[in-house]
Amino acid sequence: LGNVSSSNTHDETIIVKNHKTECRLYNAAERSLCIQYHKKGDSAWLIESSDLIKGFSYEWGYEYELEVEVEDLDPAPQDASDKKYTFKSLVRKTPAIAGGEFELSVSIYNDSNANESSIIKRVLNKTNVFEIYNQKEIECSLENCAKIDTAISENKGILFGLKLPASPSQP
To answer: 110 φ, ψ to 5°?
Structure first.
């Protein structure tokens, strides 16, 4: 008979959080930054790859309410979500409140499977700026930048307390 697959599709409204979080998905060797989302009406945040929703472009600093088509995949892939999300429409895009704070943890570790230089590094030609997972730049004071340098050199994880400036996409 070969591989038989069936799918079921339905529409759903989901809320996407205004910032990403560190994750390691589907037994991946490396960590990354992932979106956080939940089905409207649910309170538990789920974590998923940034490219979860086909046709949707995520921008830091904005909370989204989206209408999506959800396809339940059967059989589910071993290295990806058991659901396929396709962007249908933007219900709401709300900027985070300037000065709003959130935490972002970043793992620093000696793991032969990880490319440590891609986890967190200083940005060349920019004073007091680090880049996390080649995705997001953050600014820090001289004192805090020195603490980040120390944590990196000592192979320690970092819990950032980030504050949103007037432009919500630039924490």
So the answer is: -90, 100
Q: How many angstroms separate the CA atoms of 97 and 90, rounded? A: 20
Report the C-alpha gap between 58 and 35 in whole angstroms: 8
Show the CA angle centred on residue 71, arms to residues 36 and 37, nearest 5°.
Answer: 10
Strand partners, 95: 62
CA dist 70 and 84 (Å) reads 6
What does the DSSP 8-state code read for residue 150? H
| Single-letter code of the amino acid located at 168 | P
- The model's pTM is 0.76
Q: What is the pLDDT of residues 67-110, one digit of tens each?
A: 999 998 887 777 677 788 999 999 999 988 877 888 888 877 54
User: Is 8 in contact with 71 (CB distance < 8 Å)?
Assistant: yes
Phi then psi dihedrals of residue 37, to 5 deg: -150, 165
Count of Cβ atoms closer than 10 Å to residue 99 Cβ: 9
